[in-house]
Amino acid sequence: MEQIRVFLGNIQKKHGSVNSGLLFLLVLRGTVRVRSSERQQTLSERDLMVINHGEFYSLESGEPNVTVWLSMGEEYLERVCREALYTRFSCVSTSENAATGPLYDSMRSQILQIAMHSYGRERDYELLIQSAAPLLLHTLRTQFVSGSSRRKYRTENVHLLQVLEAMEENFGEPVTLEKMAGRFYLSPSYLSRLFKREMGTTYLEYLNSLRLRGARRELAATGASLTRVALNNGFSSAEALNRAFRREFSCTAAEYRRRVKKEEELPDQMEFLENGPESSLDTLVRFVHSYEKRGSARVREYTVQGKWTGERLDLPARVLYVGDFSRLSQKAVQDQIKEAQEAIGFSYVCLEGVFSAELFKNVIGELDVLRVFRYLDSLGLTPFIRVEEDMAFDAVESALSRLSHQEMAGRKVPRETGSPWRFELKETGTERSELLAAAIRRAFPGALLGIFLDPGAGTERPGFPVDFITVRQDPNEAQAPSDAFSYEQFQRHYHETCLRRAGAWMEENGVDAPVWLLDWNTLTGRSMVEAGEFHRTALIPDLLIKLRKRIAGAGFRLNLEPSGEDFFTYPLSLYLYRGVKRPLFFALRFLSMLETRLLLEEDGVLATEDGRGGYFVLLWAPYYMDPFLSLDQIKKDSLLQTVSVTLTGMEKGRYRLKSMYLDKDNGSIYQSWVRVDLYTVPDGDVIEYMENFCNPALALEDRNVEDTLEIRQSLAFNAVAFWHIRKIG
Fold first, then answer.
1. What's the pLDDT score for residue 295?
2. What DSSP line would sit under 459-489, residue for residue?
3. How many CA atoms lie within 13 A of 509 on its CB side?
4. Helix (H, G, I), strand (E, B) or coil at 452
5. Which residues are paired to 515 by β-bridges?
6. Which of 72, 65, 81, 84 has the alpha carbon at shortest distance from 26?
7. Which of 95, 134, 142, 158 is the most buried (most CB within 10 A)?
8. How many CB atoms within 10 Å of residue 340?
9. Residues with Cβ within 8 Å of residue 594, at least 6 apart in sequence
10. Reduced to 3 states, what is the DSSP secondary structure of residue 442?
11. What is the rounded CA–CA span in Å between residue 714 and residue 637?
């Protein structure tokens, strides 16, 4: 156990030294200030920090504290996980967020477990420590690699990986770019470009960073002359070593050594349990006990004044995305549209393939088209028509002429009032696009004309007036950062970032029009199992409410696979198959049930009222974490939180409270789908089972209210809850 050391006690002063191996610091009580060559940080209760191998650091505290000190030595890491010695980790819990919180919780739990084994000295405790330590290393290596780490290796290029390994082993030799390229049968210019593209730096800069790291270690650990240190680490002379140190550390190599040695010669002031405060072990036990119960004790509290102040809740218009027009002739699709419209309420229906020559080839076809549009009109749905790029202009113009006729459309398209039809063009900046725009204006003078915008693909400036813009956004198609903190920030702000890019394009091209988010998705898994286990319902209201002042409308797919055998879909849709509803259906149902008289809007909480004694509260707990981590049930359970909402100023009387709850086990299709065999085509009994069991949990309660009413709701990972409170007496 010489290579895994655990100490528990009071750290008042630890003078500067170069860390050998990895050092984990977990503060249980008090504060500890950490100063290192990479950062300065004050750790408070529950804070965790990792000191990297070869990192110069010192510790100080002006008050009594209880800190767990867990050290994994260099020899141990060489044997168990050599990669950890050459990786830079950024692991400081003071910067934790919703995504990294469960990861830090996992590491805290592992450190506490190792500390309890070490001080408990139960039978085979050393074996228990040896089995727990790799789990701690695994979490660190998979989630907290620094962006500047050598071992992050943002490349799968086999040639570059070989070069990097060779440089690691031979940086003390005169390994020029030409020699290294020749060793692996590459041209120097190609290797240079490869380094710049894959590593974000030059070959020489990277080589010098390896040499400086080796020189720092040798200066701190040995008394060798500066010339010897320079030659051992690839520098041509002591002068070259000093130039590199001045450039990187603003001091000479000799000054760096004196500073390190001076710090190391000073006596440390650290009291550990063997000869320190007896209360340390008691604090450890108490901390472990309270930590295990901490998850269920967290409560978010909100107070809502029951009287409306005049602020309104305006959500984006809802567009029902059906897809190809020919699907509207299917009864199953018509049934889904009718049910969705009655339960949720959509303003528009998005259609493709309207200008297909097959639809207008004979009188019967035209009558079918007429019946479909009248059916949509009877449901209160206004067409939102996409004009495909590959359609012949003559066919589009002919279809437009027929659609605009009174007998075809069933009514004139409104010019001043009502909901005008919308047409979206996929292409811009071409003569054909201008002809299409003119044809649409002639056929539907009152219609609104928009374009599809893709800033990354270089959308051309339109040569005609634009009434709206549509965009497509899917975070799963983007390259997200690998470390947990950056990953969470990237995913949480992905859609806002894309909209800013769209706004920049519009400003540059002189376009001023509302933006419609027709094609979009939330974060989801990369496989069927990940996508199923990663319950993402809370991300839907979180996104729509967050963007409600930036987008005019949002599209929602009806059912991606109404026929065929691939029923499970990763993108969002209202239905999985026939009448089997996906969580999106219920999330939109909850949003549609909110009234517009806004009482409270906070992260994860919305409260509205109808002016007739009815109150509506929507609660959600969004977590933008790597879906693969959702497979770990322990980490998800640690995210359980309780929300308390107190309504004040209510009219005295008896109220009925109806709550609906949507999480991984309630209203999510995945668990029920697995029970009936995920990979087979469903029969009638299976469909009936799924329709009955894929619904939110429902609870009813009556309460007498004098003036104040409190509701409390436990929210699991990415769960959503909706409360309807109405006066009944």
1. 45
2. PPPPSS--SEEEEEE-GGGS---SSHHHHHH
3. 22
4. strand
5. 469
6. 65
7. 142
8. 23
9. 313, 315, 606, 608, 616, 618
10. helix
11. 12
What do you get for the CA distance between the two ends of the chain, in Å?
71
Which residue is it, tokens 């992905």?
Answer: 494
Whole-prediction pTM:
0.68
H/E segment holding residue 240? helix 238-249
What's the per-residue H, E or C state across 496-518? HHHHHHHHHHHHHCCCCCCEEEE
189 exposure class (CB count in 10 Å sphere: 0-12, 13-18, 19+): exposed
Structure-token match 């190391």, residue found:
264
Report the b/e string of 43-52 with b at 16+ CB within 10 A. beebbbbbbb
* Ordered alpha helix ranges (H), 266-386: 279-297, 331-343, 363-378
Tokens of 719: 């769960």
Tell me the per-residue pLDDT of 338-392, one tens digit each, with 9 for 90 and over: 999 999 999 999 998 888 756 666 655 667 777 888 889 899 999 999 988 777 7
Task: Identify whether the C-beta of residue 295 lies closer than 8 Å to the C-beta of residue 715.
Answer: no
For tokens 């290579």, the residue is 3
Q: Please list the residues that pair with 653 across neighbouring strands.
A: 705
Instruction: Write the DSSP string, 543-597.
Output: HHHHTTTT-SEEEEES-S-SSSS----SS--SEEETTEE-HHHHHHHHHHHS-SE
How many Cβ atoms are within 10 Å of 288's Cβ, its own excluded?
A: 16
Chain mean pLDDT for the chain = 82
Residue 712, amino acid = R
Q: Which amino acid, one-letter code, is at 528?
A: M
* Residue located via tokens 């699907």: 327
- What are the beta bridge partners of residue 606? 601, 618
CA distance 55 to 146: 14
Site of tokens 């933006």:
515
Q: How many CB atoms lie within 10 A of CB 124?
A: 10
